[in-house]
Amino acid sequence: MPVTAQAVFDRALTLMDEVLETGVIATETPAYYKTKAIQTLNILQLELLPITAVFIPINDLTEPLQVNDRQAYLVLPYGLAAHLLINDDLTISSFFNARYDELKKKYSSVSTPEPIVDVYSVLGVEG
């Protein structure tokens, strides 16, 4: 089952320490976070999807994301948290963005490794 935008949003808010001890998202969380999250998640998904993918933007947090589960649960919350905090706390936003960039490189499906073909026999192996 695809991961919804709400699941990523909740994880981002947890990273941002917007969660109560009971595990419930704090009610005083700014309402504009949800609006900003939708458009930000559309942008972040495009960064992670292969260039050949047909992208379908989300319009609501209840909609499923197109990235794989690992990217949704591990990578996107850091990118979303970075964007949500950029006007509130630049230091923490920078930390989340650096972590997002690191994970994006590791789990991006934009490029796939291909075997190296030794066409000039520089490795001493005949092809």
Automatic annotation (TrEMBL):
Domain of life: Bacteria
Protein name listed in UniProt: Uncharacterized protein
